[in-house]
């Protein structure tokens, strides 16, 4: 199966470390050169329909959205599902065997989130009208927890997804790619109600918010236990930046 590991050209060491860390997963990883949001002009962002005019996003968030936009268009055009990984994630060694067992049980599916940030909440549907909302420990994985995670053999189920943050590994079908392109682009700053956070209304600041606003309109699932865990270190993140600006209004910044 085709796979993409999203990695910026200016950080080749992240891809090298990713490959070393996940060498025992049985996947021939393929580097995908990420779009650098610092290089995108306002005209390019509007032409690609990445952001709704007048919406405010950081350049890192727009670069991340552009990278996924390119991958989604490839999946839809090639009519081939693909694995998509962030370059900071750790993958369970048994991922291939687990996916071989899981996928035939899903029927028509759009998106299977393989893993998500562990410093926030996860909301899954157990049955009609029944949900499970959970948090994780440790909130931020380290080398020791990563090693234990990779060698784990706990059971893995695919449950309907309501809310997650930071999906760092995804399996996307051609139908799912088309739906994500339709529902998540162009990004806007819509408020999203997060039931697992006490029904807090969060403004959309990137693809996380867009995804959480549309999962219910898709055949979206998440793995539990996860097959992927990201480090999610804001100090080294290339999408968590502090240069938010208004797009589609040249010369206007905040």
UniProtKB/TrEMBL annotation:
It comes from the Bacteria. This is Glycosyl transferase family 25 domain-containing protein. It holds the Pfam family Glyco_transf_25. Residues 2-187 form the Glycosyl transferase family domain.
């Amino acid at each position: 199966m085709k796979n993409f590991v999203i990695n910026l050209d200016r950080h080749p060491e992240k891809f090298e470390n990713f490959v070393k860390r996940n060498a025992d997963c049985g996947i021939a990883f393929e580097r995908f050169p990420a779009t650098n949001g610092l290089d995108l002009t306002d005209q390019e962002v509007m032409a690609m329909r990445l952001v709704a005019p007048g919406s405010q996003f950081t350049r890192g968030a727009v670069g991340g959205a552009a990278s996924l936009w390119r991958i989604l268009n490839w999946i839809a055009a090639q009519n081939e599902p693909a694995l998509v990984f962030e370059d900071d994630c750790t993958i369970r060694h048994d991922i291939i065997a687990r996916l071989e067992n899981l996928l035939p049980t899903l029927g028509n599916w759009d998106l299977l989130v393989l893993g998500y940030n562990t410093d926030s909440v996860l909301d899954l549907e157990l049955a009609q009208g029944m949900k499970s909302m959970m948090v994780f420990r440790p909130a931020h994985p380290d080398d020791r927890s990563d090693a234990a995670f990779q060698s784990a053999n706990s059971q893995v189920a695919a449950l309907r997804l309501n809310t997650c943050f930071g999906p760092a590994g995804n399996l996307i079908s051609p139908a799912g790619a088309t739906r994500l392109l339709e529902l998540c682009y162009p990004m806007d700053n819509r408020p999203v109600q997060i039931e697992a956070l006490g029904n807090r209304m969060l403004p959309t600041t990137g693809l996380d918010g867009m995804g959480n606003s549309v999962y219910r309109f898709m055949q979206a699932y998440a793995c539990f236990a996860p097959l992927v865990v990201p480090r999610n270190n804001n100090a080294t993140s290339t999408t968590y930046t502090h240069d938010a600006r208004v797009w589609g209004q040249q010369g206007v910044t905040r």
